[in-house]
Amino acid sequence: MKVSIIQADLKWEDKISNLAHLEEMINSKIDATDLIILPEMFSTGFSMKCGELAENEGGETFNWMCNIANDKNALLIGSLIIEEKGNYYNRLYCVYPNGFYESYDKRHLFSYGKEDAHYTAGKERKIIEWKGWKICPLVCYDLRFPVWSRNTDDYDLLVYVANWPQRRAYAWKSLLKARAIENQSFTVGVNRVGLDGNELEYSGDSQIIDFAGNILFEIENEEMVKTIKLDKKSQTDFRTQFGFLNDRDQFEIKF
Fold it and tell me: What are the phi and psi torsion angles at 167 (to 5°)?
């Protein structure tokens, strides 16, 4: 499967500029691909102004995602601010070329940044299927909680979309590699670059890592689109040879 990651400088709380810029990056840098991954809150940056910036499901940004997925004939993944029944969610969408979609609400809200005071946490992990691959999509701070990403569903690809500041870049890079190794899964982390409205700097460090923890590609502190082909058979063979997941503990998550 061909995976395209987009590391972009997001304009603070400026949907029009961000969508236009991301569309230009996609159209100029991506030809044929199967999966396109955007950063967390790609249309606004990591903002707590959910009352001003939230959209209803089926709003401008969601429709933009549908158009991109259709134009590129690819699955498109990214998160945005959604209002539903009086609550606000950091909601990740997986949009298929035919307009069908699945969604995941960020489970672990970043209390240090007061995200939990503005948004409602999700309560369900999702495994989606695309072109013979099982994909587990998660959001940013979820990365710090290995139980939530534990590979109990035999997924093939673990995806994190993020706005992860440069000051904690070492943790970002270390934990992505750890998640790949412990779950024996291709793991992709897509982050942003630039400066946000809170003067936080983002250094990117988006990565594509294989099932053994080897970095296949890493983007440093710059805007970039990168497409790489992942070989599912090599992962299946590795899991067969080193069947560590067969010895995993059984557990249940309760809310």
Answer: -65, -20
CA–CA separation, 58 and 64 (whole Å): 10
| Nearest Cα residue to 61 out of 113, 5, 103 | 103
Total-model pTM: 0.97
Distance, CA of 144 to CA of 249 (rounded, Å): 19
Strand-strand pairing, 2-7 and 224-229: antiparallel
Sequence length of the chain is 255
Whether 224 contacts 22, CB under 8 Å: no
- Which residues are annotated as catalytic? 40, 106, 140
Q: What distance in Å separates the CA atoms of residue 173 and residue 151, rounded to the nearest whole number? A: 19
Give the right CATH number for 2-245 from 3.30.200.20, 3.40.1190.20, 3.60.110.10, 3.40.50.720. Answer: 3.60.110.10
**Domain spans, the chain:** 2-245
- Give pLDDT tens digits for 156-215: 999 999 999 999 999 999 999 999 999 999 999 999 999 999 999 999 999 999 999 999
- Residues 36-92 have pLDDT tens digits of 999 999 999 999 999 999 999 999 999 999 999 999 999 999 999 999 999 999 999
Integer Cα distance of 120 and 30 in angstroms = 34
